[in-house]
Backbone:
């Protein structure tokens, strides 16, 4: 009758089924455990464990759940997927007289292109002279221009009659 010897200890089993059952007691043996806080992953070799540790060294930690990521793109994807958080960079328009804060690079680039267009509309109310690149902004301004009701403008309007 064949005996089954354990490769981890000196135990010997009579049957293969007993041997398999005994191997369960050594399930954790031969695995290298990560000791990084909140991790505890196990690896079959020290080489794999070392590769894993390098990910922790980058210190890209999800402050919500404690998981680590080796690159910012992975962390952002994780936050969007598991925590429904959008980490969109905000851009402040550097153009004079524009206090816009735009979310996202593509939206910022679209916004900034507006500043490059030539002025096509100018308010004719005396004392105003504001310029606009598009008709919608100009139309809105004309309705609420503070110079529209000024004495200077009303006198100017009277002189045209």
Residues:
């Amino acid at each position: 009758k064949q005996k089954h010897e354990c490769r981890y200890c000196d135990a010997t089993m009579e049957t293969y089924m007993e041997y398999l059952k005994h191997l369960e007691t050594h399930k954790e043996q031969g695995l290298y455990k990560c000791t990084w806080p909140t991790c505890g992953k196990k690896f079959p070799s020290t080489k794999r464990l070392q590769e894993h540790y390098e990910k922790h060294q980058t210190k890209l930690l999800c402050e919500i759940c404690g998981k680590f990521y080796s690159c910012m793109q992975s962390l952002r994807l994780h936050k969007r997927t598991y925590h429904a958080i959008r980490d969109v960079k905000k851009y402040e328009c550097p153009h004079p007289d524009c206090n816009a804060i735009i979310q996202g690079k593509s939206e910022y680039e679209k916004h900034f292109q507006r500043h490059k267009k030539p002025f096509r509309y100018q308010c004719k109310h005396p004392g105003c002279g504001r310029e606009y690149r598009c008709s919608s902004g100009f139309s809105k301004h004309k309705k609420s221009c503070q110079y529209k009701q000024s004495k200077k403008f009303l006198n100017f309007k009277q002189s045209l009659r």
